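Hi team,

As requested, here is the filled-out complex form for the phosphoenolpyruvate run. I kept the field names the same as last time so the parser does not choke. Let me know if anything looks off before we queue the next batch.

— J.
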Amino acid sequence: MIVAMRSDATQADIERVIERISEHDLRAVSMPGGERVAIGIASAIRPDLRGPLTELLEVMPGVDHVTQVSRAYKLASREFHPVDSIVEIKGVRVGAPTFTVAAGPCAIESRDQLMHAAEEVKKAGATVLRGGAYKPRTSPYAFQGLGPKGLRFLKEAGDATGLVTVTEIMDPHDAELIAAHADILQIGARNMQNYALLNTVGRLDVPVLLKRGPSATIDEWLLAAEYILYQGNRRVILCERGVHPLDRAYTRYTLDISAIPVVKSISHLPVLVDPSHAAGNRAYVPALCLAAAAAGADGLLVEVHPDPASALCDGPQALSSETFEALMRDIRAFTRKKEA
Ligand code: PEP
Ligand code: MN
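And here is what came back:
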């Protein structure tokens, strides 16, 4: 439910509405708009209370009208928050009209490898450095990441280059340590419905990049975002990275391009696209990047490795620095054309 206040509503009117909502054990969230304030109820309202509460709120001083939110998620919906959200991290903006590119290796392998990657992606125009210190691997025998040592390298590379950093969190116990070393916490596809993890990052004051699970519907993805928002963390960035494919012979997953305009229309949250994990093959990554930009994505998360052939994780989908540089030129030309 959303209570739209009149443009001449006073602060006292707003507070009285919030108080009235709270008296029913419901959570009221105030959303200042351009001209007027809207107050959303971010709780499930008992069906028998809906009618009486609407009537009660409609006649309160300063109230313009009351509308129902049709979606299961509320804080993530455009009904609740009509304007695009922009997540700002150390001067880097994620969200329209900026097109933000995050790039770097799948896994942090050494100080040298990461520093190299950081310098190269920065030179090409990326503003965010990606790199995993904790890697979710299908096999327990595969490289699991450097852990805390990797985090230190990430912080060093971020500090040295001025790039904002993003890294994956898999365990709620690591939250404080990771947040002390990285600027954005990534929830990986495998953990999209790890509710303990979602609640943990929701209580932090750190932006979160939430990947879509490969089997998750759009509603499930937005409800996962809702967990983070509900805990109070409003800096959520969504990331489409491909869903389970019909045909694994050619691509690792299928990039759900349709999800981009759909999510942009029903949610105010910025949407990045990760074409690397979707394709699983570097040959297809540049085309998917351009497709994502054309479909209205707010940016990209791309795997780039200084020496893809030697990568300890996801080498086949990693772009070389040269290919990434060429891709960034194409992206810039495309986004400029779109603006013109
Ligand atoms: C990653 O970004 O390296 C990663 C593991 O991605 P995903 O969670 O999308 O598989
Ligand atoms: Mn990877």
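Two things worth flagging: Residues 106, 277, 303, 313-314 surround manganese (II) ion (ligand 2) (CB under 6 Å). The first strand starts at residue 2 and ends at 5.

Thanks,
J.
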